[in-house]
Request: fold
Amino acid sequence: MAVSGDRTASPPFGRFFLPGPTAVRREVLEAQTAAMMGHRGPGIQALMEELQKGLKDVFRTERPVFIAGASATGFMEAAVRNSGPGCILALTNGAFGERFEAIGRACGLDVEVLSVPWGESQYPDRISQRLAARDYEAVTVVHSETSTGALNDIEAIARVVREHPGTLLLVDSVTGVGGAEMRTDAWGPDFVLTGSQKAMALPPGMAFSVASDAMMARAEKAPGRGMYFDLVEYAANMEKLQTPTTPPLSLLYALKTQLAAIGEETMEGRWQRHLDMARRTWAWVDEMHGSGVDVSVLAPEGSRAPTVTCVCLPDETGGPAVVKAMADRGWVIGGGYGKLKGATIRIGHMGDHTVNELEELLDVLGDVLR
Ligand SMILES: *Cc1c(COP(=O)(O)O)cnc(C)c1O
Reply:
C-alpha cells in the first residue's frame, strides 16, 4: 500500500469496522487543527468544564472523570496500582481479562484468577463463592471482552462484590462505555475506565476513568501507585479543572466536538443504535447459517456485547483470508484475536457507524464467505 498522499481522504466513512481503533468522523478529525493553549490558564478550565459535563453523562456519574494522555492500558495499570498492595482476583474470559491479570503481576501484586472459557461470560454466583473463601483487595473484570464479543454483567458482578466492603471492583469498559449501557453511579463499581478509540469513536491517545470514594481512599494509602497514574494527583488537579501533566490538547478539541454530537444523540440513543447494529449482525449470522454457510456467533445468546461480534468460521484457519478478501474489496474488519486468529473474524459495530453502513458491510462479507 502507498504510504504517501492524503490518507484522510480515503476510504469513505463507513467501511472501517475494526474493533478499535474505530472510524472517526471528519468533523472530529478536523477539530484537532485548533490552535494550542496554555494548560494552566482559564482557557483549559473552561474547556475542561464543558468536557466534564459531557463525560459525566457518558459514564452516568456525578463524579469527576479523569482524563489521561495514554492508551486505555494506562488506566488499567492505574486501576491496579492505586488499589493497594494486597491480593487481587482477576476475572478472565478473554485476552483483555488476561491483560489485567498480567498487569497485576507486572506491578508485583499477588494475583489469583477466576477464569471461564473464551467466549463465555463470568458467572456472578461463582464470583460470590470465591469472594467468600478469602479476602481480596480488588477484583478486575472486563465489561465487553473485545477478543471474544462476550459481555460481562457489571451490574450483577458489582452487586456481588459490594457484599464485601473491603473489596474494590475495577472495570475495563474499553469497548463498553460509549456503546454498551454503563451506569457507573447506579451500579457502583469502584473504578471504570475506557479509551478514546473504541465506542467513543475518537482518535487513540486518551483514556478516561471514574473512581469511587472507596477507590480514592485506597489510592491514598497505596504505596505502589507511582507518579504518572497517581489518582490522588488526578483528583487534586481535577478540582482545579486541570490534569497533573500536559493534556493532549488536540485530542481534547476532538473530544469536545464528539461530546456535542453524543449529547445530541443522547446516551440512550447511542446504546440503542449499538444494540440495533449488534442484533442485525447476529441475525445475519443466523441467516448465513440457514443458507448453508457454517458460521456462528462465538458468545452465547444473552451474554453478547453490543459493540463487537466474534464470528466463528467454517474453516479453522480461514480468518486471515477472509480479512484480506474484505480488504481487497475496500472494507476493514478485525481478525480473530490471539488464539482465535485462525478460526474467527471480528466485526466492530461500534462508534459512529449506522445499521445502514453495517448492512452494506454484511452484503460484501456474505459474498466473501459464500
Ligand atoms: C482495546 C482494548 C484495550 C486496550 O486498549 P489500548 O488503548 O490499546 O491500551 C483494553 N481492554 C479492552 C477491552 C480493549 O478492547
